[in-house]
């Protein structure tokens, strides 16, 4: 998972699968096998990282020139004042951007400050850049996709809601597909885990998080090449919201069970308290890691299998990796929904434990 | 000779795999025994599997 | 772990947090609340419809039971009325018979009485006739006696014989 990459043939392959049917020439340059492997590794790594411009695919011309198909996105950084400029200034990370007398360079999908137009990224022994990092609030590719999903979800569900009003409380169109899912979340996730009395408060969050994660995961499987949920920042954000909701809606019983577990002897209570407290942090942490790791692993496996087609380049290996990639792709469709379900389910479970009222005689 | 950390992670993944396998197997048996409780068993199974999976990932990322 | 920390992007976190929280609140207002309310309404409506159907069914059953009861009652009443009518008829017939019998008895008695009277009258008349006859006979006998004694005795004897035969 710590390999570095950038392979153009694969972009071409993604292109081949989805957009147009050319690209067979993709990997035909005369590189040796190991070069190709490193290239694939780098490409996968690059795919997993965020980027400052929205590139659908890129390729290298015969003359060695890199061509990109896509559009630049705004870069917003805070470095002694707000600076907004187009990411086209970076020339896809190949050039140093000069903004208001400061110079910035993209290194491993992060913006670093450099000394001048020819400034270099200085790395320490662990290959960590030591350059100064400005506060970065850029609208990156992932942020663009989050915004897109935001708009899609907002209009889709708004339309669904208005259809109910017009149609005597009956769903219409998309709503017919979505209603069972909404009802499933209500009846099989929220109700049994949170309890009939309290579940209504959490419905908005649970529904939003489920559909957000699901739609974002599904978009990750399209060849647009975005993968929002394999950014730790995104899953961290979702997990921290779950944690905050759990903590702030928790009732007395919840804290009592953490700090002074009823029904166990006093020495045990003292031992249990820190463990229970740690547990409250581990729960959202595992939520974060689970979603992140599942999606990342899925993407790596998919990309590697696709990349293998270009390494094998024969009549047995290539169809085989294609078939494997196809099967894994179907599996990933399932994983996309499953991870959304598990995230919602576990969130509901944590909310449920926060608002649960125990019958103390029973302990 | 030093054992690389990734070997440890592999061991954890094996453990997690066995654990999830056992959960799945038991769930299957439970469903076969009580098909009417399929929904509840599946939910419990997924939760348990997800928790173990979390440990597996934690090990992988600790490397 | 280290890699994860290194990968963490504050900008992305910021945008995700802002957009996601905004999405939760926007959807809550514009989508989830109306959708869940509609679904609830619909479910309530279905429940109510089922309840009222159940109630209607019960009412129907009650009505049917009532109907049956009414029919039974009516039948019983009709039966009773018929029985009464039959009784009355029988009684009337019996009464009529009794009356007729009494009347007949009375008539018979009257007839018997009149027969008796007639008989008595007849007997009286007969007696008076017999007396008259006897007187006549006596007269004749007396006349004959006056002429011929033998003949007189003979006549009396024959006449007496005739009289006893009558």
Automatic annotation (TrEMBL), chain A:
<protein>
    <recommendedName>
        <fullName>ATP synthase subunit a</fullName>
    </recommendedName>
</protein>
<feature type="transmembrane region" description="Helical">
    <location>
        <begin position="232"/>
        <end position="250"/>
    </location>
</feature>
<comment type="function">
    <text>Key component of the proton channel; it plays a direct role in the translocation of protons across the membrane.</text>
</comment>
<keyword id="KW-1003">Cell membrane</keyword>
<dbReference type="GO" id="GO:0046933">
    <property type="term" value="F:proton-transporting ATP synthase activity, rotational mechanism"/>
</dbReference>
<keyword id="KW-0375">Hydrogen ion transport</keyword>
<keyword id="KW-0732">Signal</keyword>
<keyword id="KW-0472">Membrane</keyword>
<feature type="signal peptide">
    <location>
        <begin position="1"/>
        <end position="23"/>
    </location>
</feature>
<dbReference type="GO" id="GO:0005886">
    <property type="term" value="C:plasma membrane"/>
</dbReference>
<feature type="transmembrane region" description="Helical">
    <location>
        <begin position="322"/>
        <end position="343"/>
    </location>
</feature>
<dbReference type="InterPro" id="IPR035908">
    <property type="entry name" value="F0_ATP_A_sf"/>
</dbReference>
<comment type="similarity">
    <text>Belongs to the ATPase A chain family.</text>
</comment>
<dbReference type="Pfam" id="PF00119">
    <property type="entry name" value="ATP-synt_A"/>
</dbReference>
<feature type="transmembrane region" description="Helical">
    <location>
        <begin position="291"/>
        <end position="316"/>
    </location>
</feature>
UniProtKB/TrEMBL annotation, chain B:
<keyword id="KW-0138">CF(0)</keyword>
<feature type="domain" description="V-ATPase proteolipid subunit C-like">
    <location>
        <begin position="6"/>
        <end position="60"/>
    </location>
</feature>
<keyword id="KW-0446">Lipid-binding</keyword>
<keyword id="KW-0406">Ion transport</keyword>
<keyword id="KW-0066">ATP synthesis</keyword>
<dbReference type="GO" id="GO:0005886">
    <property type="term" value="C:plasma membrane"/>
</dbReference>
<dbReference type="GO" id="GO:0045259">
    <property type="term" value="C:proton-transporting ATP synthase complex"/>
</dbReference>
<keyword id="KW-0472">Membrane</keyword>
<dbReference type="InterPro" id="IPR005953">
    <property type="entry name" value="ATP_synth_csu_bac/chlpt"/>
</dbReference>
<dbReference type="GO" id="GO:0046933">
    <property type="term" value="F:proton-transporting ATP synthase activity, rotational mechanism"/>
</dbReference>
<dbReference type="InterPro" id="IPR035921">
    <property type="entry name" value="F/V-ATP_Csub_sf"/>
</dbReference>
<feature type="site" description="Reversibly protonated during proton transport">
    <location>
        <position position="53"/>
    </location>
</feature>
<feature type="transmembrane region" description="Helical">
    <location>
        <begin position="44"/>
        <end position="62"/>
    </location>
</feature>
<comment type="function">
    <text>Key component of the F(0) channel; it plays a direct role in translocation across the membrane. A homomeric c-ring of between 10-14 subunits forms the central stalk rotor element with the F(1) delta and epsilon subunits.</text>
</comment>
<dbReference type="InterPro" id="IPR038662">
    <property type="entry name" value="ATP_synth_F0_csu_sf"/>
</dbReference>
From TrEMBL, chain C:
<dbReference type="InterPro" id="IPR050059">
    <property type="entry name" value="ATP_synthase_B_chain"/>
</dbReference>
<keyword id="KW-0812">Transmembrane</keyword>
<comment type="subunit">
    <text>F-type ATPases have 2 components, F(1) - the catalytic core - and F(0) - the membrane proton channel. F(1) has five subunits: alpha(3), beta(3), gamma(1), delta(1), epsilon(1). F(0) has three main subunits: a(1), b(2) and c(10-14). The alpha and beta chains form an alternating ring which encloses part of the gamma chain. F(1) is attached to F(0) by a central stalk formed by the gamma and epsilon chains, while a peripheral stalk is formed by the delta and b chains.</text>
</comment>
<keyword id="KW-0066">ATP synthesis</keyword>
<dbReference type="Pfam" id="PF00430">
    <property type="entry name" value="ATP-synt_B"/>
</dbReference>
<keyword id="KW-0175">Coiled coil</keyword>
<comment type="function">
    <text>F(1)F(0) ATP synthase produces ATP from ADP in the presence of a proton or sodium gradient. F-type ATPases consist of two structural domains, F(1) containing the extramembraneous catalytic core and F(0) containing the membrane proton channel, linked together by a central stalk and a peripheral stalk. During catalysis, ATP synthesis in the catalytic domain of F(1) is coupled via a rotary mechanism of the central stalk subunits to proton translocation.</text>
</comment>
<dbReference type="GO" id="GO:0046933">
    <property type="term" value="F:proton-transporting ATP synthase activity, rotational mechanism"/>
</dbReference>
<keyword id="KW-0375">Hydrogen ion transport</keyword>
<dbReference type="GO" id="GO:0046961">
    <property type="term" value="F:proton-transporting ATPase activity, rotational mechanism"/>
</dbReference>
<comment type="similarity">
    <text>Belongs to the ATPase B chain family.</text>
</comment>
<feature type="coiled-coil region">
    <location>
        <begin position="36"/>
        <end position="102"/>
    </location>
</feature>
<dbReference type="InterPro" id="IPR028987">
    <property type="entry name" value="ATP_synth_B-like_membr_sf"/>
</dbReference>
<comment type="subunit">
    <text>F-type ATPases have 2 components, F(1) - the catalytic core - and F(0) - the membrane proton channel. F(1) has five subunits: alpha(3), beta(3), gamma(1), delta(1), epsilon(1). F(0) has four main subunits: a(1), b(2) and c(10-14). The alpha and beta chains form an alternating ring which encloses part of the gamma chain. F(1) is attached to F(0) by a central stalk formed by the gamma and epsilon chains, while a peripheral stalk is formed by the delta and b chains.</text>
</comment>
<keyword id="KW-0138">CF(0)</keyword>
